[in-house]
Amino acid sequence: MILDKLKNIFGIKNKEQKIDDIVSAKVIAISKSLHKNKNSLEKIFSKSDDLIYRKIYLENSNTSLLLVCIDGMVERDLIADHILTPLQLEDNKGDITINLEKIKEKLITTLEVEISKGFQQLTRSLLSGNTLLFIEGYKQALMIGTTGWEARSIESPASEETIGGSREGFIESIKTNISLIRKRIKTPKLAVELLEVGRKTRTNIALVYLKGVINHELVGEVRNRIEEIDTDGIVGSSQIEQLIENHKWSIFPQIMSTERVDKTVGSILEGRITIIVDGTPFVLIAPVTFATFLNSPDDYYERSITSSAMRVVRYISYVLTTTLPALYLALTAYHPGMIPTPLVLTITESRMGLPFPTIVEVLIMEFTLEILTEASIRLPRPIGQAVSIVGGLVIGQAAVQAGIVSPLIIIVVSLTALTSFVIPVYSFTLSNRLIRFPLIIMGGLAGLYGIFMGWIFILIHLASIESFGVRYLGDFSPYKLEHLKDTIIKVPQGWMTQRPEILNVEDTKKQDIEKARMIVDE
Amino acid sequence: MKFLLSRYSKLFLSLLFIIIMIGCWDYKEIENRGYVLGIAIDKPKPLPKGYENDQSYQEEKKLERMELQQGEPRYAYTIQIPILPKAQVKPIGGGGGGGGAESSRSWDLTLLGNSFFEANREFSTRLNYAPFYEHLKVIIINEKVAREGIIPPLDMILRDPEMRRRTKVFVTSEEAHKILDVTPRIDDYAAMYLADLPRNATKTSRMPHITDLGEVAESLHGQVDFGLPIVISTSDEIKIIGAAAFKGDKMVGRLSGIQTIYAKWIRDAIKGGVIVIKARHNPNILLTLELKKVKTKLRPIVDGDNVKILIKSKAVINLAEESETRYKDALKQDFIKNIEQGAKDEIESNIKETIKYVQQELGADIFHFKVILQKFAPKTWEQVEDDWYEVFRNLDIVVDVDVELEYIGTVK
């Protein structure tokens, strides 16, 4: 119902329905008899005890009505104030007739009312939280928009905190999420295409993009891929992500998922497409490149020099978090000549008499780190802190004192842990935590040579994958100075006049440098 | 799927090959290496008098002898390995876990042999940590060995991949291993203490600081003469006292500390230092001058068959000390000119004396006049090439030093 409304607003045609459970309702026609209709519904919704059937008899006009809704999905006040009360008041006026038209046009005071003839539409409407009103003697029924279920209020995005950004994060409701975007982009060019996915869940999905800016082939491609999904259900946006991405065996995410509204709006303005999935606060952004995963919204809220410095820190952290343990292993076991003499003696001293070879030590501690990270996510917040203290301090200290590992390895491992949290996108952090282990093995087997072999493999892979036609390393290769404006460094805002070339957008101009200059001159 | 399989199996195979074929190549735990910090090369020494019947001394010496495949031992090689305490629980913030400062923190092993490589491998019969030379800091050569030529004992060190250019080379008139046996007051190891000494070249020019093994190798291969620092020691101290001049690979003589200043001056190697002159108006007054910047250029002056070397130098100095305070004159041009002239005279005469000493006593071209001729007067060089050392002994030198006094440090 609301869906149809929204579709009407944006002039988007309804897509042909996929085979699903509701189709079985198609054959049943609405009967003039309330009793029969009730039976039909009970048949369709067998064993659904949360359906509310409310029979109403209006004495003066001698009309029987049947009101059906699902408990918990409707706003009870809305039904009482805008359906039941007006009907009773009208009836109390005395000797009048009440017919379907009158109810629809005059008596029902909610925003959305529509007439339906088939059970298929009624069923879907009912499941979306609307209220059905059958009237004795009519082969039609009213669908009244009374949707109102419990939703979380808009909060600060927990997984992506920033210092300078807006405090609004997406929530589970698709309507709210779309409104959050529309609030910030006030142009009729902002397109919101609605789709449904999932034979059983019938999850609403919205594609949000800027018409006239985005590459329309991209929209077509994303739409096609989503429409081709034929699955029982979608419970989170990452399922959509996995179903539509190019390279299923890659450990690198090819679609960004974010809770942040400002990040999403920025991406839409750059000419990317946004996929909002009902029931999850994580919105998908495509296409993305390697560099976008190392950008934080905070970069755009700070001055270009400071945020460029932070970007450099982030890139170095990326290298450290993936390679530092492997590097430590390779340098100590194969190339101790490359470490300054005092340090080599310190490391040697700290390793004297330890039972495990360095490679085992590194693997044990890295594994422990992964356990700790995983445990601290699972555990409730107060206990989680206790675990990190126990893990970080007690286990580390105890392991050193017990002579199982060397103190240096604790430094190395905690540095890798710290640097991994510098990377702003969690799914990207995960994939890079995974890279660490093969690199440790390679470093342990062949020293620096092994690490470089490992990185060459990773680079070959990175260069070979793409996200919706945009190469993953597109910012860096083929090399063009223009492309680096918003990667390792961030040039001043006034210089970013063009949308990223690799996105192949229709309207490349983002702002006018002359105008930006004029403001500066004044 | 088949395509995937074949593609991934190829990837897997190539990874497998990388792993198998390198086979952990020289994986060695960091604590299982014996980090050689210093090498000392001596002549083998007969037993000292009075020790012939000392049982423990004999026992000790027994380990130093090795069965040689050829010939008699020509050198006594000593390597220094740090003694690292076993990892132990140290109280937080407590620093080192005690340990006596009286006991040496290094282990010096001596072997008598005639090939360093052979001796190096023989060390592994005494040492469970195989010697590892990438952290070699110093090589100390006994003067007697140096006078016989340093190429034979250093050949392996010059060519082995484990050796590093940065290793410093020193000469000593004492037994070289005694330098390694020094227990430094602050540092843990004599080798690291000694290796850091030439870094003070910005403070004094009395020691040659270009003493890297790489420089020695370049000089040896380029067939130019060179100088190396001479050290002496007590039980807990090492001192650089001057330079040893090498002709070819053989040491021919020494330069004192002050001569070293002027030898470095000619080589344009002054990084700082001090000269003391007498005031011109009153020889009882001493002026101490700090060398700020010294730039020396050598050029040949060819006049027919006659060759001279022009030493043109510009020095910027500060007035560091003056034994008679005359601050009221300090800003007068006369005063400044006077000091500049005095310094110029002193430096020029000292340079000339140093050259004369080297020409007559040592006969080693440590100033690289040869290189200057090769570069700027190649035709003349061809003429004198065959009897170069004879020409060098009688080479005329023109010295022109320009001194500029920069800071006088006046306080009113």
Structure explained in plain terms:
The complex is a heterodimer of chains A (522) and B (412). Chain A is of the alpha+beta class and 522 residues long. Chain A has three domains: 2-144, no CATH class; 174-288, no CATH class; 301-470, no CATH class. In chain A, 46% of the residues lie in helices and 12% in strands. Chain A contains 16 helices and twelve strands. Chain A has helices at residues 2-10, 34-44, 76-92, 100-107, 119-127, 174-184, 216-228, 237-244, 261-270, 304-333, 341-351, 358-378, 381-401, 407-420, 426-464, 513-521, and strands spanning 51-58, 63-70, 113-116, 131-135, 141-144, 190-197, 203-210, 256-258, 273-277, 283-286, 466-467, 470-471. In chain A, the strands form three sheets. Chain A has a five-stranded antiparallel beta sheet with strand order 1-2-4-5-3, sandwiched between helices. In chain A, strands 6-7-9-10-8 form a five-stranded antiparallel beta sheet, with helices on both faces. A two-stranded antiparallel sheet of chain A has the order 11-12. The longest helix of chain A has 39 residues, at 426-464. The relative contact order of chain A is 0.09. Residues 13-19 of chain A have low confidence and may be disordered. In chain B, a hairpin with a 2-residue loop joins β12 and β13. Chain B has helices spanning 2-22, 55-64, 116-123, 143-148, 151-159, 176-181, 190-196, 213-222, 257-266, 333-362, 369-376, 378-384, 388-393; strands at 33-35, 38-42, 75-82, 106-113, 130-132, 138-142, 168-172, 226-233, 238-247, 250-256, 273-278, 286-303, 306-322, 396-407. Chain B folds into two domains: 30-46 and 55-85 and 102-262, no CATH class; 272-407, GMP Synthetase, Chain A, domain 3 (2-Layer Sandwich). In chain B, strands 4-3-2-6-7-8-9-10 form an eight-stranded mixed beta sheet, with helices on both faces. Chain B is globular and about 85 Å long. Chain B has 13 helices and 14 strands. By secondary structure, chain B is an alpha/beta fold. At the A-B interface, α11 and α15 of A face α1 of B.
